[in-house]
Amino acid sequence: ENKEEWILLSERAYQIKKVVVIDGQGGRMGKSIIEQLKKGCPEDFPAEIYALGTNSAATQAMMKGGADFGATGENPIIINSQDADLIIGPIGILMANALLGEITPAISVAVGSSKAYKILVPVNRCNHHIVGCQDAPLGEYLRQVCQEAARVLAF
Predict the structure, then answer these.
(1) Residue 58: closest CA among 40, 78, 79, 72
(2) Which contacts of 79-82 are long-range, i.e. CB under 8 A and separated by 24 or more positions?
(3) How far apart are the C-alpha atoms of 90 and 98, rounded to whole Å?
(4) What is the DSSP letter of 127?
(5) CB 54 within 8 A of CB 101
(6) What span, in angstroms and rounded, lies between the C-alpha atoms of 104 and 124?
(7) Using an 8 Å Cβ cutoff, are 49 and 19 in contact?
């Protein structure tokens, strides 16, 4: 075993970015984000995309979008938020009981306290409004999400 090869492999493994996409309901937003990220990533870019759904329909949709890994429910979201480099999702993932009750208090605390850089989509539903956000179609917000992700991940 060549020591130089081992060092090169271990450096590459260390540089892999963990991108967590969290969504609920039908997972359409998360699926679109993952599809756009996959289109924009160079093939050799060391990033792994984790699709974390609050329900199985959301996870399944995001997996169809091209995620590398997928899991469903509160515990996978809590565990994977701890060591994520980037978390992407609707702003409701920071609010207990958002997404029609799919975001538990434990999920919102885990996501909010994660050291990961967070890119949040301003969805004005479920009795909240984000002042200062332009009234743009969802597609425009998703384009901005992917643009910011590319900047943060440097691809």
Answers:
(1) 72
(2) 80/18, 80/20, 80/50, 80/52, 81/20, 81/110, 81/111, 81/114, 81/116, 82/110, 82/114
(3) 10
(4) T
(5) no
(6) 18
(7) yes
Site of tokens 């991940």: 153
Interval 28-70: pLDDT, tens: 999 999 999 998 777 766 789 999 999 999 999 999 999 999 9
Asked if 59 and 76 touch (Cβ cutoff 8 Å), the reply is no
Distance of CA 93 to the CA centre of its chain: 10
- Reduced to 3 states (helix: H, G, I; strand: E, B; else coil), residue 18 is strand
Identify whether the C-beta of residue 85 lies closer than 8 Å to the C-beta of residue 117. yes
The pLDDT of residue 127 is 66
Which of 151, 149, 43 lies closest to 89 in space, CA to CA? Answer: 149
Question: CA 117 to CA 3: how far, in whole Å?
Answer: 34
* 35/37 Cα distance (integer angstroms): 6
